[in-house]
Design brief:
Elements (H helix, E strand, L loop, with lengths): L1 H8 L3 H14 L7 H27 L5 H5 L4 H29 L1
Helix pairs in contact: 1-5, 2-3
Length: about 100
């Protein structure tokens, strides 16, 4: 399942990370106490960007799901898996950056 989700996720990961990192930088790249207050808005920003990607894929490339449907995965399963993977990846990188900036 993970390899299928990774294959699906690499279609749009750059756009989603650009939106999320831009949102983090737009609020001043908080790393101190205000960092905790930014986790919820970043989550909602990522969820909204996934909604836009889902809408665009439903509108312009519905046949792109045929490969995954032949493997037995629905578009909902793919998006939920990709969203979980993206959240883990983004917040792990964000935490690592925060720790590095606080240490140095």
């Amino acid at each position: 399942m993970l390899s299928v989700v990774l294959h699906f996720y690499k279609n749009f990961w750059i756009i989603l990370h650009l939106v999320a990192w831009s949102g983090w930088l737009a609020v001043g790249a908080p790393i101190g106490e205000e960092w905790w207050g930014m986790l919820a808005p970043l989550f909602w920003l990522k969820l909204a960007s996934y909604g836009v990607v889902w809408l665009l894929m439903q509108t312009f490339s519905r046949e792109g799901y045929l490969f995954y449907q032949n493997l037995g995965y629905s578009p909902t399963t793919l998006f939920v898996g990709a969203f979980g993977l993206d959240m883990v990846l983004f917040f792990t990188l964000l935490t690592a950056i925060r720790w590095m900036l606080l240490l140095f």
